[in-house]
Design brief:
The protein is built from seven helices and no strands. By secondary structure, the chain is mainly α. The protein has one domain (4-131).
């Protein structure tokens, strides 16, 4: 379970990805706000993270990292606009989280095979399982 500060760090990471192309679309904002609500972060505190990000101190367990990576992939595709800066930011965030580079590349390649580029969780888990063996 995450501490409140860890939750703020997760949200800061997501916000950084949304801002990678210098535009946070209404779809991205709504998605971010929804995740903030799921994490128990009030809207006022959520808004402050855009200007005052909280550094993510720990990457959590492998399962928690996979969940966060999945959130990042969903966020990158929520506005239906694939920007190279977002792809690069996602890749770097994944590496920083300890996600195997091959797994990141595989997710980026196969996401185009799914409606709205939403990689099903079970497919994502198979990819990570293959790269961790």
């Amino acid at each position: 379970m995450y501490t409140f500060k860890e939750k703020l760090g997760l949200m800061s990471e997501l916000i950084a990805l949304a801002k990678a192309d210098h535009v946070v679309s209404p779809a991205e904002y709504g998605f971010l706000l929804s995740i903030a609500g799921d994490l128990g972060i009030e809207e006022q505190r959520f808004l402050k993270l855009f200007d005052q990000p909280v550094k993510k101190e720990s990457h959590g367990s492998q399962g928690e990292r996979i969940v966060q990576f999945h959130r990042l992939v969903l966020l990158m595709n929520v506005d239906q606009e694939l920007d190279e800066r977002e792809v690069e930011k996602l890749y770097n965030l994944g590496l920083h989280m300890g996600i195997p580079p091959g797994a990141i590349q595989q997710v980026l390649m196969i996401m185009h095979q799914y409606p709205d580029k939403i990689v099903p969780p079970e497919v994502l888990l198979k990819i990570f399982k293959a790269h961790n063996n």
